[in-house]
Amino acid sequence: xxxxxxxxxxxxxxxxxxxxxxxxxxxxxxxxxxxxxxxxxxxxxxxxxxxxxxxxxxxxxxxxxxxxxxxxxxxxxxxxxxxxxxxxxxxxxxxxxxxxxxxxxxxxxxxxxxxxxxxxxxxxxxxxxxxxxxxxxxxxxxxxxxxxxxxxxxxxx
Length: 157
What we know:
By secondary structure, the chain is an alpha+beta fold. It is 32% helix and 32% strand.
């Protein structure tokens, strides 16, 4: 991701804005049953370990480009996104094939309640965090993250 951020900085005009938006694995996603008015929480779904590690690496990459003064933090926050499902079996099928989530929810309602409402509509409510990063004019010194050895310089010797 560091290389990608360096490339974004290279092509973005000074003062241009990059938006980093990704699922927020620091909080669980919630399984909710749709009711006539609102939602009822049925369980939670965690992010799998591989994706947690990827998210931490992305956080470190963003911190590096800010520390290197390639970008300046302008705004950040979190919003919630709901993914609808016709019923509980559809939601479970989605989780079985999902690459980011663990494949089973941690339920807060008993099995009888899940069976009774299995044909109701459900949603997965997940957090998405975002950050607006403003491109800063490059300084004359090269960044540690983007500097590469110049093979032509050694050929000239």
